[in-house]
Amino acid sequence: MSKTKLSILLPVLSVFATQLTGCNTPAPSKGDLMIKQGGPFIEAGIKWNEGNRLVKDGNKRIAEGRDTINEGKKIIAQGELQVKDGQNMIEQGKKLLEEGERLYQTGRPQESAYPSYPAPQPAESIEVFPLSD
């Protein structure tokens, strides 16, 4: 087998070997392979690995940003619901106020939404016991 075919198959074979053996050793990256070749490829391999690291970090931050945006959208939706509830309560309050003003102007007693309870009546007879000295 020629050297070029072997260099192409090596990463593929290492992935299959990792999957078959259950070994957690990752296949060498392209940057690592460049560094092993030596010469002018060392610097290129180092930059390649650094670029891959930056890409992974960037993708992670993008995913975190998307999660944060989704959480923000949920919070905004909850806030909008609270605003609508508040507006409905204001409208109900305005209607009650208008009804109260109308009833006040016509002289009719206002009917409360809350049940009225009779005021407590004084007791008919209260026994008072003298304090002993």
From TrEMBL:
The keyword Signal is annotated on this UniProt entry? yes
Look up the signal peptide feature and give its range.
1-17
Q: Which domain of life is it from?
A: Bacteria
Q: Where is this region: Disordered?
A: 107-133
Q: What keywords does the record list, in alphabetical order?
A: Signal
Protein name from the UniProt record: Lipoprotein
Instruction: Provide the species name.
Output: Methylotuvimicrobium buryatense
Q: What is the lineage of its organism?
A: Bacteria, Pseudomonadati, Pseudomonadota, Gammaproteobacteria, Methylococcales
